[in-house]
Design goal:
The complex is a heterotrimer.
Chain A lengths: L8 E6 L2 E6 L4 H7 L23 E4 L5 E3 L10 E3 L3 H17 L14 H8 L23 E3 L9 H10 L4 E4 L6 E4 L16 H5 L5 E3 L13 H12 L1
Parallel strand pairs in A: 1-5
Antiparallel strand pairs in A: 1-2, 3-4, 3-5, 6-9, 7-8
Chain B lengths: L4 E7 L5 H7 L4 H8 E5 L12 E7 L2 E3 H12 L1 E7 L1 H5 L11 H11 L15 E6 L9 E3 L6 H12 L15
Parallel strand pairs in B: 1-2, 1-3, 3-5, 5-7
Antiparallel strand pairs in B: 4-6
Helix pairs in contact in B: 2-6
Chain C lengths: L1 H16 L3 E6 L2 H5 L2 H15 L5 E6 L11 E4 L6 E3 L7 H6 L10 E2 L4 H4 L17 H6 L4 H9 L2 H11 L11 H10 L6 E6 L8 H8 L1 H15 L3 E7 L3 H16 L15 E7 L8 H8 L23 E5 H13 L1 H5 L9 E8 L5 E6 L4 H8 L9 E6 L5 E4 L9 H6 L8 E6 L4 H15 L5 H18 L5 H17 L3 H5 L2 H16 L6 H13 L1
Parallel strand pairs in C: 1-2, 6-7, 6-9, 7-8, 10-14
Antiparallel strand pairs in C: 1-3, 3-4, 4-5, 10-11, 12-13, 12-14
Helix pairs in contact in C: 7-11, 7-14, 8-9, 8-11, 10-11, 10-12, 11-14, 18-19, 18-22, 19-20, 20-22
The chains are: A alpha+beta, B alpha/beta, C alpha/beta.
Chain lengths: ~240, ~180, ~550
Amino acid sequence: MKRPFKTRIKTLKIDGIDVGAREDETLLELAQENDIFIPTLCHLEGVHDIGGCRLCLVEVKGTNKLLPACMTYAEEGMEVTTNSERLQMYRRQVLDLLFSERNHVCSVCVSNGHCELQWLAGKLGISHVGVPYLYPQLSVDASHRFYIYDPNRCILCTRCVRVCDEIEGAHTWDVMGRGTDCLIISDLNQPWGTSDTCTRCGKCVQVCPTGALFHKTKAVAEMEKRRDFLPYLRTMREGRK
Amino acid sequence: MSTKQTLATVWLDGCSGCHMSFLDIDERLLELAVLADLVYSPLVDTKEFPEMVDITLIEGAVSSEEDYHKIKKVRAHTRLLVSLGDCAVTANVPAMRNRFSVRSVLERAYLENADLNQQIPVEVIPSLRERSVPVHQVVPVDIFIPGCPPSNDTIYYGLTELLAGRRPDFGTMTRFGA
Amino acid sequence: MLERLEEIAATEQLFAEEFAHTVNVCMAAGCMSSQSGLIKEAFDKEIERGGVERRCRVRGTGCMGLCAAGPLVTVDSQTPDEVLYQQVKVEDVPDIINALEGQPVKRLQCSIDIPFFKRQKKIVLENSGIIDPERIEEYIARDGYSALLRAITEMSPSDVIDEIVASGLRGRGGGGYPTGLKWTTVAKSDGEVKYVICNADEGDPGAFMDRSVLESDPHRILEGMAIAGYAIGASQGYVYVRGEYPLAVARLKTAIRQARRSNMLGSGIGGTPFNFHVDIRLGAGAFVCGEETALIASIEGKRGQPRPRPPYPAEYGLWGCPTLINNVETLASVAPIVRNGGEWYAQYGTATSKGTKVFALAGGIRNTGLIEVPMGTSLRDIIYDIGGGISAMGECKAIQTGGPSGGCIPAAYLDTLVDYESLAALGSIMGSGGMIVMDESTSMVDVARYFMEFCMTESCGRCVPCRVGTVHMYNILDKFSRHEGTQDDLVLLEKLCDMVRNTSLCGLGQTAPNPVLSTLRYFRSEYMDCMIPEPDGAEIINETLEVAQ
């Protein structure tokens, strides 16, 4: 028998607050609607989620597994905790790992002051990094006419890959390699400036949370990124269907 | 014997910007002077690190053999060790050489980029360690004050709290690269 | 249709009886790598030269199990017991042929009256080493495809599932999820199109169960998949084999072709309306593609990276359709269960883990090879009785099960009866069946380091804890193996283990700390022995004293 209604409405508790939700809403969306802060670096409104950064992990009563808020859908009677001491500890550790992985030097970074990684570190109270730094050897790609790609500041959130594929439709960016050797590459790992697929739209630059992708002509003070275009574009597209 | 607390500052591999920011506390330095004696610092004339210091601020990363031995000794003679500024906390700019070998860094600095007298110094200048690392990778650190440099207000707040026997909570006052 | 199968079986039987002697040469990867291919050729030539083609035939068969003694050859002279020859060389071939009518060649003979053969119970491996994997007729002659025909002609899909549920079979890929429950879920999921996937991306170091089954009895997998397809309502199956198994792929291809020709795969199987097609997809060498969601991404042509579950593939799998993913060994158990009934299968094993399990014995054990035993056999029986004990001098120190996701079980627990729960209680897992035996010379820190290096290089890089956490854990373990560890390192290592286990996206990361945790649990003193002799603290105290003077 088919369900008599289209979308079911669920009621659940997030941090003790009663919340009403459509069944297709994620815990992250619900938290944001209700002004509950859940940190995230890979989530980007307008493109699909991957659950990769693990910062949005939350506790749900009844399961001992931590679930990514960005990919967990509302369920009836759920009791969600978004900010326990344990979660805070893991989130700080995730940031520790990210800072140690590549060569993040905030003081000389073009995104200093406009960086989501840096901002989150402050927000979550990271005063220092508890693991040794890895210092990989990575070279900067400045071959593009307008933009620069500096993998030293990349956190592999793949926002650029997803926005290029799903919104711009160019699929210039992708991921190469495995583990910590993963690298965001343009086309078939060729200099960005020689890419045949890149449309120079700059969406990847706007969505990059750190200084890994940036404008050639902009100074530190001007490096604010604009990503309000994304939900707008998506709404426009869905409206047209 | 004075009942005042003792304060020291140490300059490792850094640009001295954190010390400048410390001096930038300006007239409030006089208030600090009431609470503590500055017993060892690049800013005072003491040559030997005292037997025991209450609070020591460290500027800079641990880059050379000299830094390494100095910080070991300072830690042994300090009650409360404070990493002041990004170089001490993250190794910051000094660590940007870590991706290259010490040899190639020296060659770049003293041979390729030198117009006169092209030679790598072997005397007087302390030899570089393989990697430039944050202070807490070498010795335990009690308090971290990130920032490049931390502002005078941040330093003043941190010091007054510590001298009052409280653990400062910097909140959003400072951050990496601030 | 069943009659046709019986006809094929009867013809095959007659054909076999024409020969007084059958020489079987193991042609699975283990013996092939010690040149059993040349030995088979030598037999062909020798028989031709001796003019005994009428009385004697040579066959290539699948894995006979005792890989340590390869290349293996058996001679079946239609007497109750076969003669097994071990470590056969090309030069030995004439002697073996000359001995056909008389006494066996003593110097090469290996007794089959040893625990290695006597104590096994073969269900999955019932045909391995006995039939020629490249001939469907031989599979049919041993009741092959009769289960499929029975299922699609006499049973309803839910009857089939009931048998699987009754058998108590649990996933043999490592997780141990009840197979019947999985089938039920997929069968109930909404969807016009469903898929069956056979996960043959076996990647654990030291494990070769799936490879051997595919090389020795590929039709068994196809039959299991077709039965699964019928049960859940799928008409398309994929076998995802790792590219490093060329022989398995070749045999599987042959098998699919033969099965299609015999109408055991394809459209209108056995004259019924049931259609089931099987295609092969090759892995490109990524271990993580053994994880079901990564495997699905790989089949879809995407980068092989896992995604968070739920939704599980049973609901949302290949191309968004409900998908049943089972491991090779699980699917290989299906045909015998349907043929003999779930009850029959459930008589073997323990209360919670039914049936038999194939293990690949490797490491410092005398009888390296492939074995199948009922669940609930003790580790001691497996290692000392069936496995023949430790190959080097000394005693067994630990047994590693479950590959990089498993743990090391110390020798003190040798009397543990093997099942899913007992191994989990010891901090290891059943895993897919790799069993690496370590003698007293093994450094447990090095073992942990080895597996961490494996996880580090096999991490897909999608989630932060696994991608970066494994690197830090590896670096610390490397320090320990250089005897440069410190107390702080140990604290950090345990912190990272906890974090990576609880926050990683998929099973690879969640279980990556297991080898470290289990060695820390049982062999902590070895980590202590790998620390710098004089801690930093002592140095500082000395300096303080100097100043004080």
